[in-house]
Amino acid sequence: MRFAKKSALLSLAAVTALAACGAEPQVQPADPTTKETTPPVAETKPAASAVDLLGPKPELPPSRPFTPPAVETFTTKNGLSVWLVEKHGLPLVSAVLVVRGGSSADPANQPGLMHITTDMLDEGAGKRSAVEVSSGINDLGATLALGTSADASVVSLTVLKNNFNAAFGIFSDVVARPHFDAKEWKRVSELWQNNLKKRSDEPMSVSRVINAAVLFGPDTPYGHPADGSLEAAAKLDLPTVKRFYTESFRPDRAVLVVAGDISRKEVTDIVDAQLGAWKAPPAKAAPKQADFPGPRAASARPKLVLVDRPGAPQSVIAVVRDGVAANDPTLPRLELINTALGGSFTSRLNMNLREEHHWAYGAGSTFQESRNKGGFWAIASVETPATGVALKEMLSELTKMAASGPTAEELEKAKAQDRADLMQTYETVSGTARRLATLARLGLSPSHDSEATRARQSATLTEVTALAKTHVDPASATVIVVGPRDAVGPQLATLSLGEPELWDPEGKPANAAAKPADKPAAKAADKPAPKKGK
């Protein structure tokens, strides 16, 4: 009873307040289910539309393209090209040495030679042992990393400005004065082979190996894994590595990218002091450049490839076709198409396979950045029972994009992401150095990003739609599946792609007559050119 009275008083107060504001109260009838009369509840009549005191919503001006920082270029006394960006906001300096060639310079019968040669550089250099190189870098609070891709090998350094001279001394020893000690070779070579043996445990990585091998051919510069093969690794010896280092690591084939709190004079002085004696060997010692056949024609490739992973709970699906070279003038606009198709979280592929159907943690696509003509592929790791339907959806999304291109809204979103990504890339000292090193690796000019972003920002819907028709159509693509043959075989049969050609995890066509019960295939995987940091 006390609570009913209290409620009545509150309701009466509300009615009084409304009356004071000029609203006419409406009295509700008594509730027949209670012993007391339900207090009246006030309702207000719709008021006249209020005037927006803030005025109309302001229109934002058009976004301006971001312009990356200017790059100063010069050549040192020993013939080394230098790209310098002075950024004096923080006392940091990043340096990246880019040695052109990469795994594409491997002899045909020695895949992985550039990878293991680069990997040996910091295993003792100058007056330091392998342990002393590592501890010296750590004591200076620096980071030193090495890695090999298809087009170049890189050695990178980031450190506080106060410690740059000392850290660059170690960096220079690693680049120009490595030991190639036999004891360290034995250890590093064994680790390398053990890592190659583990590739079959990582299906997403092996899919990338198979993608390249199928698209270019297993024994071509772009078709073999950057970190080599088990067969080749077992045959490589230290004298071969030493000889290859002398031929490949030379200043006339390299670019030194420097960014941060440092001037041209400081860079010139330290390079002359630390790397002045590093000079190119006689011209006759230069390795013969390999031919670069582009992606194979669709007629020369199988339509469907399967790598068997018995019992795997997930399959990796990929649709692979030819792409373009990094210097192709259409690539900037193709990247806008890719952003809408599979290059962002809200892209069509990811929203379909992940958000709508929940078959995958993520799905994407990419136009390879490569010095010569590369590839394009869409890829995802999906639940094994959904392999067939997920692949059907992936092919459908590619077909729709090829038919009608991105929407106007998708194009504007891709342009906005281009601006944001470019600003983020050049926001830090290390990011600036890494991106310029990528441009050097691809044989592009230091001003490439400025020109490319202008091309993307000025792209029209008509232009990108026309490019989509010729560059993402899956009709000429190869479909590659890494998964359990017994489970995915019947699913693939419903897609009218023909009988799958069986390949092994090393990127070679397998014995098509072998069945899982007769000759189980290894699991599939491989990591692309792993990097090492200290």
UniProtKB/TrEMBL annotation:
Residues 237-417 form the Peptidase M16 C-terminal domain. It comes from the Bacteria. Keywords: Signal. InterPro entries: Metalloenz_LuxS/M16 (IPR011249), MPP/UQCRC_Complex (IPR050361), Pept_M16_N (IPR011765), Peptidase_M16_C (IPR007863). GO terms for molecular function: metal ion binding. Residues 1-19 form the signal peptide. Residues 516-534 have a biased composition (Basic and acidic residues). Residues 86-203 form the Peptidase M16 N-terminal domain. Residues 24-46, 492-534 are annotated as: Disordered. This is Insulinase family protein. It comes from Polyangium jinanense.
